Amino acid sequence: MNAIDMFCSVASSASAMDRFTSAETWERPDVQWGSHEMRTLTCCRTTDETHDVRTFVFCGEDGRPFSFEPGQFITVSAEVGGRTVSRCYTISSPPTRPYTLTITVKRTPGGVMSNWLHDNMKPGVTLNAYGPAGVFTPSSAPAVKALYLSAGSGVTPLMSMTRAAFELGLDRDIVFLHSARTPQDIIFRDELARMSVQAANLDVIQVCEGVGTETDWNGPTGRLSLELLEARVPDFREREVFTCGPAPYMSAVKEILARGGHDPARYHQESFNFAETVEPLVEPAVPAAENQAAAQSTYTVRLARSGKSFTMESDQTILAAARKAGVVLASSCSQGICGTCKTAVLEGSVDMQHNGGIRKREIDKGLRLMCCSRPTSDIVLDL
Ligand code: FES
Question: Domain 2Fe-2S ferredoxin-type spans what residues (predicted)?
Fold first, then answer.
C-alpha cells in the first residue's frame, strides 16, 4: 500500500472521525516527521491573504507526506544576512492535505524572517524546517462544542483545526470568532464564509475595530467583549475555548471569560507568541534553590551519534552550553515551550523546568528539552 492509499484508508474509515480527538490520528509512524528532524521544503505556491499577510504552500523535497496535528507549528530556518535565523510558524493547512503544508505569515516591520519570506519565498525556492511540535491541539482537550477565539495572524492554528473538522465532516459544533483591525485585515475571510455556509455546525463571527475603507461592513465593530460574547455565543460557558493572538489579546480574553463565569479548566491558549521570538536566545533563569548546590558541579555531555563531547557547568542549560562549545542543536523558543530542542537522554540525569513543550508520554520515553534542562550528572544524548 502506498502513502496515498494509506492516507485514504485512514481518512475514509468509519473510525476516522473518532480518531480526530486522538493525537495518534496524525502521528502516523510511516510519515512521521519528528520535531528534531530537519527537512527541506520547496515552495510550490504563494497566496496573498491580505495586503500584508501571505500564505506559503510547501511540499517536501523528499516527496514524503507531512503528518501533524492541527494547531501545531514548525520551525523554519533560513540564511538571512549571512546568519541562520529560525522562527516558529503555526501550520495553517489541515493534516487532511498531507502532501502540502502551509504557513501564513504577516509581514511585520523589522521582522527578520517575515520580511525575508515575503521578499524571497517564491515557487521553487527552498528552506529548511524542523518538524511539527506544540500541544495547542484539539486532541489535548476533546470536546463536541468549541469556541475558537483569535486575533490577527493568531487565526492560523484555529484555521487548521477548522479546516480539518470541516473536511472530515466532524460532528463538532464550532463557533469561530475572529478579531481584526478592519474588514480588509480579516485573514481567510472568503474561505471561512464559504465553509460556514456549507457546514451547519460552523458559525463564523468577525469583529473589527474599525471599518477602514469598507464603509458597508455590517458585522460587529469594536473589540471582543463579554457583551458581544453573550449576544453572539450565548452558550459560550458550555464550550471548550481555544485562543490564539497577541499576548494582550489573550490576557483580555482570559479576563472576559473569567468575568463571564467560563470554567478556566476549559480554556486553552497558544502558550507562546511566536511573533515575539527574538534572538539571541535568552537563558532561562535558574531556580534559586537548586542553583546553590548545582553551581558547584561540572559535567560531561557526550553526543552518542556524532561522538562529540563537551563539559559544562550545572547552572547552564544544555542548549546554552552546547552553543558555547560550538555544537549546533535545533532550537527556537529557548523557553521550554515549542519542543524544537527535544532530545533523548540516553544516560545520566537532568533537571528539566519546562513550560508545556513536552508531553508526559515523551518524558516517560526519556526525551527532554535541552533549552530548559540542566545536568545533574554526566550525560549521554541521542545526538
Ligand atoms: Fe523551544 Fe527548547 S527551544 S522548547
Answer: 299-383
Whether 371 lines ligand 1, by a CB cut-off of 6 Å, is yes
CATH 3.40.50.2000 fits 31-133, yes or no: no
From the options 3.30.70.380, 3.40.50.300, 3.40.50.10190, 3.40.50.80, give the CATH code of 138-269: 3.40.50.80
Ligand 1 centroid distance, CA of 355 (Å):
9
| Topology classification of domain 288-381 | Ubiquitin-like (UB roll) (3.10.20)
**Which pLDDT band, with edges at 50, 70 and 90, does 27 fall under?**
low
**pLDDT of amino acid 28:** 52
- Place 273 in a pLDDT band, splitting at 50, 70 and 90: low
Q: Which of 271, 317, 335, 362 is the best mutation target for the ligand 1 pocket, counting ligand atoms within 8 Å of the beta carbon and taking the most? A: 335
Ligand 1 atom nearest the C-alpha of 358 is: 4
Counts for the chain of helices (H) and strands (E), in that order = 10, 18
For the chain, percent of residues with pLDDT exceeding 70: 85
Distance CA 332, CA 72 (A): 14
**Cβ-based burial of 212 (10 A; exposed 0-12, middle 13-18, buried ≥19):** middle
Q: Which atom of ligand 1 is nearest to the CA of 331?
A: 3
